[in-house]
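Batch queue: ligand-bound targets. Current item pairs a single chain with nicotinamide-adenine-dinucleotide. No template structures supplied; prediction is de novo from sequence plus SMILES. Inputs echoed for audit trail.
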Amino acid sequence: MEIRNIGIIMNGVTGRMGTNQHLVRSILAIREQGGIKVSDDLILMPVPTLTGRSENKLRALAEKYGVENYTTDIDSALAKPDNHIFFDASSTLLRAKFVEKAVKAGKAVYCEKPTAVETKEAVRLAQLCRDAGIKNGVVQDKLWLPGLRKFQMIKDEGFFGDILSVRGEFGYWVFEGDKYDRPAQRPSWNYRKEDGGGIIIDMLCHWRYVIDNLFGKVKSVSCLGATHIPTRYDEEGKSYKATADDSAYATFELDNGVVAHFNSSWNVRVRRDDLLTMQVDGTKGSAIVGLRKCWVQSAAATPKPIWNPDIDQPIKFFEGWQEVPDTQVYENAFKIQWEMFIRHVALDEPYEYDLMEGAKGVQLAEAGLQSWEQRKWVELEKLS
Ligand SMILES: NC(=O)c1ccc[n+]([C@@H]2O[C@H](COP(=O)([O-])OP(=O)(O)OC[C@H]3O[C@@H](n4cnc5c(N)ncnc54)[C@H](O)[C@@H]3O)[C@@H](O)[C@H]2O)c1
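Prediction returned. Tokens below.
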């Protein structure tokens, strides 16, 4: 049995995503399960090196989780032939600088979305990787969430007939950070445009790959953004001006005629099944797609509502839906994508979710911002 070590530089790993999703729930979880078992003769074992700016933070993280390697000297980590993959979960505006370094060092590149805040820059980075012939990938985690996988499964089985429309509702209340017992649950840079923040750049990146993969290719967008909460409080409790959008109301036209509308907001209180729900209506059936669950109603089970606000609603609408059962144990979505990328790097297995796909997300976000600014529909140019 060969155990092949795959060295992974994890940059910006002390952040929220880097620590929780990528280090603990993905790379360390893969190590704990004994690596990626490819066959009876081969196991791929990820070996992380934690990198970042603060030696103390890195040491504390490494000690907490028993990780051997950490350094603030990213160049020395990149110079080691044992490190095969460079992963970046630092802030968006730093992505280009780190990707360029990794490409120069000839490492495979994997990074968080968005890869940039402008399409031109995102495409440039994708092309840089292509020209250098290095393997590359962008996090598109939502695709492996159980709710979305259940949707894809029943769609492939023909449950919906023709899909007509999709209504996405995403969001929750993010505390402003001024109450001592209600700290903000997102980093303050999310609300500052000058630091790469804003819900349009954050969420439209996700909606691009979700829609493209599940419902049809996005053709054009109309988007209205808003900064509903003008002042928030940062990690030190200091007030700052929110310079980025915190809500977006966006409509997408797809090439197959499906209309998708997604509301995204950090200023809504939740009265729905999950933080993200997508209602999909088709001629033969409908679904509510949540992060982990999916509920369906077939044409045959569709009730006949009659408009009469003078009486209490006699139909119990929520009772007319059936949950699609689990058919397996669903692994963490980030971990699944990590395993695919590691196999792509080590075994040359195909992998679709590269930086050019990531650039499409940035393109949709930039088009959304342009639509808002100019109050008009924006058509998307083809990227490939
Ligand atoms: N896939 C998803 O669902 C998802 C969700 C949230 C955020 N993100 C993306 O992940 C990235 C990180 O977001 P976050 O919420 O974890 O933010 P965060 O602020 O918690 O983390 C950013 C990290 O980068 C580090 N950093 C800053 N400058 C650095 C430098 N020069 N060198 C190395 N490290 C540096 C910071 O110290 C921090 O640890 C962003 O690009 C964001 O868009 C993705």
